[in-house]
Amino acid sequence: MEVRVLGCSGGIGGLDVRTTSLLVDDDILIDCGTGAGVLDVPALMAIDHVFLTHAHLDHIAYLPFIIDTVGDYRSRPLTVHAAPETLRIIRSHIFNWLIWPDFSAIPDRAHPLMRFNELRIGEWADIDGRRITALPALHAVPAVGYQIRSETGASLVFSGDTTVCDAQIEAINAINDLRALIIETAFPNMQHDLALAARHLCPQMLFSVLDRLIVSPEIYVTHLKPAQAAEITAELAAYSGRLKPQILRNDQVFTL
User: Fold this and answer.
1) Count of structural domains, the chain
2) Residues 67, 40: contact at Cβ < 8 Å?
3) Domain that residue 132 falls in
4) What is the per-residue pLDDT across 172-230, written as a single tens digit (0 to 9) for each?
5) Cβ count near 76 (within 10 Å)
6) CA 99, CA 186: separation in Å to the nearest integer?
7) Rounded distance, CA 221 to CA 187, Å?
8) Which CATH number does the domain housing residue 182 bear?
9) Per the database record, which ranges form the Metallo-beta-lactamase domain (predicted)?
10) CA 205 to CA 128: how far, in whole Å?
């Protein structure tokens, strides 16, 4: 199984700065930010499943465009997996016929171009031997992270957007086959109060998470705000703990 980083920034700016989306093999997206825009139409047609961490625009922005572009090419609906609260938000505020058509009712509800699947914390979807499990997260809106586990028994965890979350740390520590942890750090330390208010992480907060991990994955940091990326990177380099954080990059590939 391969996980390719399509976008991993907290903002946009040209081809190199694009928001969160991960491609699992060729048929699964984890979040659907502007990073998904690098895929051409044949690649978009191959997407059968989208897993959303939460309903903020930087994580869902391209979902309406994808289903509008490829729906008529497909013989089966695109399945969108998310927590019940997230699905309620996007159905009420995006696919509501005002912002965008409700593709779960096109051409009709018996034969939709898109369908929704509720995935609560601790539940998983098994897709051809690949298991994707919803993990706890703590953000400004209802949110989850995901464990992505391959058929060969290796896992990657994506934290989603979160502040320090005791339940997520506990869940991560229970994953014995964890190879990599992709975890957000959106703000520099000087914006610690803003990170707390927005329920994101800054480097000091990330370090407190890493210090509590008993597993030993590679650590990759995502969701840096572009204006503060250099400052955050310098602060991350000062960490003296056991697990050394690296900056996640566009087009990085994880093989599990």
Assistant:
1) 1
2) no
3) 2-255
4) 999 999 999 999 999 999 999 999 999 999 999 999 999 999 999 999 999 999 999 99
5) 10
6) 28
7) 12
8) 3.60.15.10
9) 18-190
10) 37
